[in-house]
Description:
It is a single chain. This protein is mostly helical. 79% of the residues lie in helices and 0% in strands. It contains three helices and no strands. It has helices spanning 7-21, 26-45, 48-61. The protein is elongated, with a radius of gyration of 18 Å.
Amino acid sequence: MPFRLGWGELLIILLVVLMLFGANRLPELARAIGRSVTELKEGLKAKPADTAAAMEEEREKK
Length: 62
């Protein structure tokens, strides 16, 4: 594993994220990340035919 992060490094990363986004926006950010991961997993499970049909529909809309 190329990135071996210890507790100190994780704490520093958490503090930087906290300073960048603020404590009030962290739950919103976590929900957005969770939704993105869920959508990615669903997209990876989709059949190639479903994906091709969805791409064709998008092209027709444009």
